Amino acid sequence: MRESAGLRRTGRRAEKCGRETQGIPQRTGEGKRRKGRKRKEERVRNMGNKKLGFGLMRLPLVDANNAADIDMEKTKQMVDAFLEHGFTYFDTAWMYCGFRSENAAKECLVDRHPRDSFTLATKLHVGFVDTKEDRDRIFQAQMEKTGVSFFDYYLLHDVGRGHYQKLTDLDCFGWLREKKEQGLVRHIGFSFHDTADFLDKVLTEHPETEFVQLQLNYLDWDSPSIQSRLCYETAVKHGVPVFVMEPVKGGTLAQVPEAAERLLRQYHPDRSISSWAIRFAASLDNVQVVLSGMSNMEQLTDNIGYMSEFEPLNGEERELLARVVDIINGNISIPCTGCSYCTEGCPKKIAIPKYFSLYNADRQEVREKGWTPQGTYYERLAEEFGRAGDCIACGQCERVCPQHLPIIRHLKDVAAYFER
Ligand code: SF4
Ligand code: SF4
After folding, report:
1. What confidence score (pLDDT) does residue 295 get?
2. Probe residue for ligand 1, chosen from 336, 352, 392 as the CB with the greatest number of ligand atoms within 8 Å
3. Cα–Cα dist 272/248, whole Å
4. What's the pLDDT score for residue 161?
5. What predicted TM-score, i.e. pTM, was given to this entire model?
6. What are the tens digits of pLDDT across the range 28-83?
7. Domain made up of 8-319: CATH architecture
């Protein structure tokens, strides 16, 4: 088995040695846990500056209405250009592109390039798993679809409250550890859509996690519902590197309001609007990879242009983005500040500011892509809190809201939007 690109030293050591020397912190003492955290952090420092990852979930299509009809020739050209510029990380999943993304990875990448010139990540979504046997059936199919003999990175897909119990019942974490011990997977992690306290719980219960994939962008950074910053800080606390998904928020941060666009263009006339979003994520020290789901050569050329010699955001650029966030938020539907005064006395325990934040976020999303993550976040929260539609209009919340918001009316809008 040849060695994959990236994290080489760690991978070799992991194959030769036992659990302790794989950088997996043990549960038997804080000293050992600290050691594990330090090793994970060292891996981040060893990554260099090539932080751009190729997300194979929005590949160019022959038939724009058929997600599975991938334009393989265009994809090959993009893959080649990506590798030629020194980038190595490719991210696919079982169900991307109508279940054809992994096949595209084989045809466009694996069959045409040396195994040590790239790293490949894929994922297991527990929504497709009902028995322990299903885990291996899917894993085996993924190896055949992609044509590799091992995956550099393997993720449990979309971990959150809604799936965690099933993942635990089916021992998916233990199963993944076995795959690593067998040399079939080099690094194990999970992608995550939920709140920071839940991330803390999962990382505490699974210290073997080597990386976590988070929704992280400058608009969601301080969002009370998506909690990009808090989730990032939680990963830092556990010494777990972050791989970023949705840095451009599904295209939303490529098309900001006109006033915001003017500000960004004045500062960097030649830079794309989406470059600001990707650079924001890549500027964070603990971020190892920023995924971009590139759909055409133009996007790829743009991305590799500013990411080849990546420069982190400077202070002025950060201030500019803060103003852009203000402008975007100035256009939002419900001007809730997230103070949470309203939630304390609610007899239905409705997560009012969180729902308002999701509603605002979803209204700002680009619609054409058909799916947005906010609905998923809403369902997860609604498992723990009352739903917007549960409101009995008692008025308690409106009496304490410092913004004097018509909360009851807004909750009706939220319920009609997410509970339809
Ligand atoms: S009006 Fe609705 S949201 Fe507000 S406190 Fe009463 S039940 Fe809760
Ligand atoms: S009290 Fe008003 S401003 Fe504060 S979180 Fe609740 S709805 Fe938002």
Report:
1. 92
2. 392
3. 12
4. 86
5. 0.78
6. 344 544 555 555 544 433 445 689 999 999 899 998 778 889 999 999 999 999 99
7. Alpha-Beta Barrel (3.20)
Q: Are the CB atoms for 92 and 146 separated by under 8 Å?
A: yes
Q: What is the crossing angle of helices 407-418 and 352-364, to 10°?
A: 60
- pLDDT tens digits for 104-142? 999 999 999 999 999 999 999 988 999 999 999 999 999
Q: Is 350 in the pocket of ligand 1 (CB under 6 A)?
A: yes
Rounded to whole angstroms, how far apart are CA atoms 87 and 310?
A: 12
pLDDT tens column, 8-27: 223 332 333 232 222 323 33
- Report d(CA 79, CA 75) in Å as an integer: 6
CA–centroid distance, 343 to ligand 1, in Å, is: 8
The yes-or-no verdict on residue 1 having pLDDT over 90 is no
Q: Which atom of ligand 2 is nearest to the CA of 400?
A: 1
Atom 7 of ligand 2: nearest residue by CA position: 336
Three-state SS annotation for the chain = CCCCCCCHHHHHHHHHCCCHHHCCCCCCCHHHHHHHHHHHHHHHHCCCCCCEEEECCCCCECCCCCCCCECHHHHHHHHHHHHHCCCCEEECCCCHHHHCHHHHHHHHHHCCCCHHHCEEEEEEEHHHCCCHHHHHHHHHHHHHHHCCCCEEEEEEEEECHHHHHHHHHCCHHHHHHHHHHCCCEEEEEEEECCCHHHHHHHHHHCCCCCEEEEECCCCCCCCCCCCHHHHHHHHHHCCCCEEEECCCHHHHHHCCCHHHHHHHHHHCCCCCHHHHHHHHHHCCCCEEEEEECCCCHHHHHHHHHHHHCCCCCCHHHHHHHHHHHHHHHHCCCCCCCCCCCCCCCCCCCECHHHHHHHHHHHHHCCCCCCCCCHHHHHHHHHHHCECHHHCCCCCHHHHHCCCCCCHHHHHHHHHHHHCC
Model confidence over 382-402: pLDDT tens digits?
A: 998 999 999 999 999 998 887
- Confidence (pLDDT) at 136: 97
- Please provide residue 91's backbone torsions phi and psi, each rounded to the nearest 5 degrees: -125, 120
- What does the pLDDT look like over 238-274, one tens digit per residue? 999 999 998 998 777 988 888 999 999 999 999 999 9
Which pLDDT score is estimated for 43? 45
CB distance 194 to 159 below 8 Å:
yes
**Ligand 1 lined by 396 (C-beta under 6 Å):** yes
